[in-house]
Amino acid sequence: MVRRLLALGAVCLLLIGTALAREAVAQPPAMPSGSAAQEGAPPDAAGADDPGAQEVSQGDAAVVIDADASVTSVVYASENADENAARVTGNVTALMQNIVVEKSGGTDSAENCNFYGQNAGLLATDGASATLWGAQVHTSGSGANGVFSYGEGTVITIADSTISTEMDNSGGILVTGGGTLIANDLTVDTQGASSAAIRSDRGGGTMTIHGGAYTSGGTGSPAIYSTAGITVSNATLKATASEAVVVEGKNSVTLLDCDVTGDMQGTYGQHSDENIHGVMIYQSMSGDADVGRASFSMTGGSLTTLAGDLFYVTNTACDIQLSRVALTLADGTLLTVAGNSSSRGRGEQGENGGDCTLTTDGQTMSGVITVDSISALMLTMRNGTAFTGTINPAGQAGDVTVTLDDTSTWTLTADAYITRLNGSADQVIANGYVLHVSE
């Protein structure tokens, strides 16, 4: 009877998840041609000499599932380089209960592993639908991502499963090329560099995640790295040696009632001028993400950084939305919107500032906001937002507009310099300091 109920639940999960995924699946971003990779790859990105010229290479597979299948308690294993332990491919449906995936063996091509799923533990590709529940996935080879959905129309639905990876370029769950992945109540742990627990790469896709715990332990390995549309609810996200979340280019991260922690410790090694932060929103110019407006939205839950700024925006335009989030800062800096040295290829120095819209709703926040001379900020506080802090205390720099509705307040902790103020000046509590408005 229990087995029959499990099977029925799995079929329901597949039907619901696949229907939602087919409805939500995004078109993969167009690939720029002739875009040169820059020295010093961004966190969790591989780069390529010519993104437009890449051919899809997925290597071999120990087991290929290319017809409809339903399997229970099967072990899939591979010790060979550039080989999937299991691959589901083509217009097929696979139901996989209590499977075990063991993948060792490394790779000679980080790009093929990161972009196309070569050497992953389990790869779904070419429009396949795979549903996994009760799975145990473990990889110990370089470039061995755990569970990988590649290509438009490909859907992985995975629930009540554990995924662990040990080596570099080995994310936990991953989409590229327009793939879709739906996850419920997973435990994901990664240990290598450039190995985000929740990860997307070239061509992006859609990820919808509910519940579970997602932890990364390597440098350059955020809990979430997004070149896709990623939504996570009711989950715990933790990066112990990296920023917590990165959004690159014209992509998004939406968090609902999640507890998120980042601890960026020497992630970039020799790049001593690298900014330290909890959430980074940027454009790498590697060709891995379309250029455009990025989005980070968080409602409820908590966001903590144990090193550096809470938010850092550079070489991109973005929207940040915060509502009733418990914020914990490491060094008193709430937000930095600024250009960068371009030593890591993030635009041309002097022209690679940020353009940020920060909208808060019922939010309590504190700290310093800095906007440099080649950057801009539009800060809107509404529905009882209370900000205790300052903006550009060293003097006028970038273009800054602050808008307060009649329920929100700004309490100064130092002199502040902005371009314009919309709303009543009565909502600004001087606290012995001066708000300088240039227009």
Describe the structure.
By secondary structure, this protein is mostly beta strands. 7% of the residues lie in helices and 44% in strands. The protein has a 22-stranded parallel beta sheet that branches. The chain has a 15-stranded parallel beta sheet with strand order 2-6-9-12-15-17-19-22-25-28-31-33-35-37-40, with helices on one face. Strands 1-5 form a two-stranded parallel ribbon.
Jot down its keywords.
2 helices, disordered N terminus, 22-stranded parallel sheet, single chain, elongated, 15-stranded parallel sheet, mainly beta, 439 residues
Topology of this protein?
Layout: H1 2-24, E1 60-61, E2 64-65, E3 69-72, E4 75-78, E5 83-84, E6 86-89, E7 93-97, E8 100-103, H2 110-116, E9 122-125, E10 129-133, E11 136-139, E12 147-150, E13 155-159, E14 162-165, E15 173-176, E16 179-190, E17 198-200, E18 205-216, E19 224-226, E20 229-233, E21 236-239, E22 245-248, E23 252-256, E24 259-262, E25 277-282, E26 294-299, E27 302-305, E28 309-314, E29 317-323, E30 326-328, E31 333-337, E32 355-361, E33 364-371, E34 376-382, E35 386-391, E36 399-404, E37 409-412, E38 416-418, E39 420-422, E40 428-429, E41 435-437
Parallel strand pairs: 1-5, 2-6, 3-7, 4-8, 6-9, 7-10, 8-11, 9-12, 10-13, 11-14, 12-15, 13-16, 14-16, 15-17, 16-18, 17-19, 18-20, 18-21, 19-22, 20-23, 21-24, 22-25, 23-26, 24-27, 25-28, 26-29, 27-30, 28-31, 29-32, 31-33, 32-34, 33-35, 34-36, 35-37, 36-39, 37-40, 38-41
Would you summarize the structure shown here?
By secondary structure, the chain is mainly beta.
